[in-house]
Design brief:
The chain is of the alpha+beta class. Among the domains are: 90 residues, 2-Layer Sandwich (Alpha-Beta Plaits), CATH 3.30.70.1400; 46 residues, no CATH class. Helix content is 23%, strand content 24%. Helix 4 crosses helix 9. It is globular, with a radius of gyration of 21 Å.
């Protein structure tokens, strides 16, 4: 079975409010966690006229199965301008109650507590007792609760894990899956700020001096309230835009009315994030690796205790760290029949463990 083989049944279970718009664009849909996700759009195939000489043709059928060349063209176009991507599949959990900060402070490697974190998004991890990476996600710290934003595949697992830990520790918290109440649209690229300014009521509020990286602020698009989170998983400036499910279509339409390109999840989750050496849960981030090996350890370890802290400190104190080859460059990919071949599925995400040499 192909490593990217999609389910043939039980499709269309979860769809974004702008799914029909994506169908009109000729979306090439795959599925994750029940959500239909467009990996690219037939409407963008004209981009191959401009970028085709930089996008290889996968001659081997196995290599090209469930892959669309237009995705790589969308990658290059977004790098020169900007684009929006449907991130409706994000799994969201609200953690609230008297002990909600205490719970996340114990579970997360990054500091969650403190008034200084209110109004910010915090990228962090759950570790296990051996200090190995169990999960990665973003915590949105609000005045009365935290919202944990996760991937569609790992989200349900981490949701139940938090509930078990809260019960075991006797903490007074309420943990609620709000995934289907909210929708996310990503906007990224060198022109993302300029494009977004054309549809918000306060354009100056998006300037760097007014909107710091990792900050979260309310904005309005298409007459709908939106929570803008300045973060990037594609190596370009931009924002995650979070809104209520019922407001999603109006926001999508307002953004598309500016002429902004819609690009697929292939660009977001695979080619762009790998180009920038960003990590992917359940691929690069597993309990095989600790934060040092994954090159995600923070310069300082927080004072508060957290699960896996003792082991994490032990790893940081090593004189020599195991080296991880995070990027493997294939300099020759021609097989014995003279056909260029391309890794598919999880094979292009693997790391190779090497002994430290420096």
């Amino acid at each position: 079975m192909h490593t990217r083989e999609p389910y043939a049944t039980s499709r269309g279970v979860k769809r974004s409010p702008f799914h029909e718009r994506e169908k009109e664009l000729g979306g090439y849909f795959m599925e994750l966690g029940g959500w239909e996700r467009a990996h690219g759009y037939a409407a963008n195939e004209h981009l191959l006229e401009k970028y085709g000489d930089r996008v290889p043709v996968r001659e081997n059928e196995w290599d090209s199965r469930h892959f669309w060349r237009v995705s790589n063209a969308e990658h290059l176009a977004m790098s020169e301008d900007c684009g929006i991507v449907n991130l409706s599949h994000f799994h969201m959990v609200d953690i609230e109650g008297p002990d909600h900060v205490e719970l996340l402070e114990w579970l997360c490697a990054a500091k969650i507590g403190g008034d200084g974190n209110i109004g910010k998004g915090i990228y962090t991890h759950f570790l296990d007792d051996e200090g190995m990476v169990r999960a990665d996600f973003t915590v949105i710290r609000m005045a009365d609760r935290c919202r944990l934003i996760n991937g569609a595949d790992a989200g349900p697992r981490d949701f139940h894990y938090m509930r078990r830990v809260a019960e075991d520790r006797g903490l007074d918290v309420t943990i609620t899956d709000v995934t289907e109440k909210f929708i996310t649209i990503g906007i990224w690229g060198p022109n993302a700020r300029a494009k977004l300014k054309t549809v918000v009521t306060d354009p100056a509020g998006l300037d760097p001096e007014n909107f710091a990286f990792a900050a979260i602020k309310p904005i309005e698009i298409g007459g709908k309230p939106v929570t803008a989170f300045r973060i990037s998983y594609v190596g370009e400036q931009g924002w995650e835009l979070h809104m209520k499910y019922e407001d999603g279509l109006a926001v999508w339409d307002a953004l598309r009315a500016t002429g902004v390109m819609a690009f697929g999840v292939e660009t977001y989750a695979n080619s762009r994030r790998m180009e920038k050496s960003l990590r992917l849960q359940n691929a690069d981030l597993l309990t095989q690796y600790n934060l040092i090996e994954a090159d995600l350890a923070r310069p300082k370890v927080k004072e508060a205790d957290f699960r896996g802290k003792a082991k994490h400190l032990e790893y940081k104190a090593r004189d020599h760290q195991p080296a991880m080859l995070c990027t493997l460059v294939m300099t020759e990919n021609t097989d014995k029949q003279g056909v260029k071949r391309y890794p598919v599925g999880s094979s292009f995400r693997s790391w190779i463990r090497r002994p430290a040499r420096c």
